[in-house]
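Design job #97: recover the sequence.
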């Protein structure tokens, strides 16, 4: 068992919104609770706590000093400003060295996966594992060996972990996924089909045959016998034969007008 880290605390009289003055003075407000006792407002040096917390996390057994008697405790929660990231508050939980507690232990990934070297991507399904242990036996982290991930779709579950069962018990479901290797997804843009008929309202591609009922493409050959570029006669009625044109074979001549009868 590692030696408990000592944290010096003091009883705190300032409460409510006035604790902002403590923070500006480099003092971190907090509270000690649990252990079948009333909660106690406390304070500690902010810089010293920050340096220690980076090493301890929430799984290291602490010894709180400065009050009536030394008290074993764990860090239950640390609050930070969402804007600056500075410490705002700390909650210490009293514990007994003879009673098991529950704790969230971070996962530490070790080694390199051969499947990742071959082009796969790691997908982390969880970052913490819940355990039950005596306060002095809580691990700082739980190591997950990635070298066993040999191929794409290989996975590691809770049941695959190897740890000292005499020290702590994992409470999470054994079928819970921890990490998996997945293939890299590459999006391929569709290739347009050559000579495809354009959709309604679209212009046909150059050289492509127009769809049924569509106007002919620019530059299309004129009908047989038609003079290219000849405009329609001004005032000509639709369907009227051109001047001097012979009627089609078998067609009846047009009836004479009144002026022609005279």
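Job complete. Output follows.
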């Amino acid at each position: 068992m590692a030696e408990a880290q000592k944290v010096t605390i003091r009883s705190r009289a300032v409460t409510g919104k006035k604790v902002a003055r403590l923070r500006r003075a480099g003092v971190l407000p907090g509270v000690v609770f649990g252990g079948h006792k009333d909660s106690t407002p406390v304070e500690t040096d902010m810089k010293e706590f920050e340096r220690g917390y980076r090493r301890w996390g929430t799984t290291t057994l602490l010894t709180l000093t400065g009050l009536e008697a030394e008290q074993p405790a764990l860090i239950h929660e640390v609050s930070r400003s969402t804007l600056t990231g500075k410490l705002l508050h700390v909650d210490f939980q009293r514990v007994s060295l003879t009673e098991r507690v529950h704790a969230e232990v971070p996962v530490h990934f070790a080694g390199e996966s051969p499947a990742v070297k071959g082009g796969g991507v790691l997908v982390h399904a969880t970052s913490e594992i819940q355990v039950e242990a005596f306060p002095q036996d809580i691990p700082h982290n739980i190591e997950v060996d990635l070298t066993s991930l040999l191929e794409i779709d290989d996975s590691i579950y809770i049941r695959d972990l190897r740890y000292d069962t005499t020290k702590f018990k994992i409470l999470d479901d054994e079928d819970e996924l921890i990490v998996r290797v997945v293939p890299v997804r590459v999006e391929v843009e569709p290739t347009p089909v050559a000579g495809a008929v354009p959709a309604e309202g679209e212009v046909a591609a150059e050289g492509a045959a127009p769809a049924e009922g569509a106007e002919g493409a620019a530059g299309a050959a004129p009908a047989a016998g038609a003079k290219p570029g000849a405009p329609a006669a001004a005032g000509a009625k639709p369907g009227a034969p051109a001047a001097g044109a012979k009627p089609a074979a078998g067609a009846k001549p047009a009836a004479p007008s009144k002026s022609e009868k005279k």
